[in-house]
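It is worth pausing here to work through a concrete case rather than discussing structure prediction in the abstract. The textbook approach is simple: state the sequence, then state the predicted structure, then interpret. We follow exactly that order.
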Amino acid sequence: MMVTMADLTDAVRTFLSEGTRTGKLGWVAPDGRPLVAPIWFVVEGDDLLFNTGAGTAKGRAIARDPRLVLTVDLERPPYGFVQVQGVAEIIDDLPEVRRVATLAGGRYMGAERAEEFGERNGVPGEWAIRLRPTKVIAALDVTAEP
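Step two, the predicted structure:
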């Protein structure tokens, strides 16, 4: 069953936080082409946080238009997905950039390497992005009986 909401429910927050599922971040290029790239992210309350370089395609796109979409899926039974549409806030405060990079590094590479990723990605020219949901679409068990 597909559910549409404006905030993250506990079930959606759990789905987004489990394991090391990557997010697929979508944005619109300056010429109107839709683009998607995989990202590491963490959930904090109802927001999703990730890092990107200010000069990357993602960074330039977010500075130009903060509207983004992030999809996370489960690629095995019972199959499922969450799509988060939202507005991004750019954070260039280095301690906060490093904090987000450390959290993401810990999630995807393990606690023993969290600081390494925080140091590597918490540097000038890198941003933390806070995606605030405006619409959430979720189907957490695609194989369920109707």
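Step three, interpretation. The chain has a mean pLDDT of 94. The two ends are 7 Å apart (CA to CA).
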